[in-house]
Write a structure and sequence with these properties.
Layout: H1 18-26, H2 31-42, H3 51-60, H4 65-89, H5 91-101, H6 105-118, H7 120-127, H8 133-142, H9 147-171, H10 173-182, H11 184-203
Amino acid sequence: MASHSEASPVPTPKKKSLLDKAVALASGPHGLWLLAVVAFAEASFFPIPPDPILAAVVLARRDRVWLAAAVCTVASVLGGLGGYAIGYGLYEVAGKAVIEFYHLEEAFHTFQARFAEWGGWIIIAKGFTPIPFKLVTIASGVAELDLGVFTASSILTRGARFLLVAWLFYAFGPQAKAVIARHKGKVLIGGTVIVIAGFAAFALL
């Protein structure tokens, strides 16, 4: 006689969220390398800012907070120098394609004109905002802003921004991690809004 009892289903492992994967990678030996690559690329062509990776590194390894901020800053400044070089000598070959990709040709030319009045101060002001830093760096190269001024301004603004992000997640890491875990969707939407706001702010310069 056949038994009517059914075997209990074997529970399947729960899929990890993107946050979990990022934190897992950040806590491993390649976390800082990933942070450096993203920070470098974002300053010259990559669309995603390094802040989420920096946050993941700090959330996973609080002992790396200042090292992570330093790596992020150095990589971003070096990437910014790459963006400057694109604007200075390769604008027609590569820089123009980046600007056209984001449909910011008019805003780009307006931003260039601001250098005549503000110089390095505009880098300090805009480098701390959600405005894509690659557009600032390429515009600086096209405007032939003094390389020393550009480098010093980039170090100041990117260093201050990433130190602040690192410190916030160091100080409020457990609370932040709990909030992100409970409201992944809202956090993702919020991050998207910040990126869009950056492009809108740049377009309204």
